[in-house]
Write a structure and sequence with these properties.
With about 140 residues, this protein is of the alpha+beta class.
Amino acid sequence: MSTTIPVTPLTTQDAETLVTAARRAADAAGVTVSVTVLDAGGHLLAFRRDDRAVLISGETSTRKAYTALQLDAPTTDLVDLVKPEGPFHSLPTALDKPLLFIAGGVPVHRDGRLIGAIGVGGGAPGQDHGFAIAAVEKLS
């Protein structure tokens, strides 16, 4: 008989830690962003858009988080998979889901299990990825 060890889910306090860390990293780079944190079920735990962040960054941060969560992978690792020659080429149009294959979404794990995801939008894709990684590292 195997025993399953429960994993503490992502909490609202964890979500606030992620948002704060991502925004601090973005502030240090002089970039205004939106940050979205989703729990393992894809439910919104935290969202913050800087006053001067482009409006679409709210949508992109949410879609990046959702994509990272659903595929349990950083969105930066998925970009090439949806190119015309990639194996996921038809995935964005085949599903009626808010997927976005642009760097800036990162899954969040605890004890090796997926507990949520963070998405950052507003900077260049590489910057957004870096801000999200900084946040996840701060949480661990």
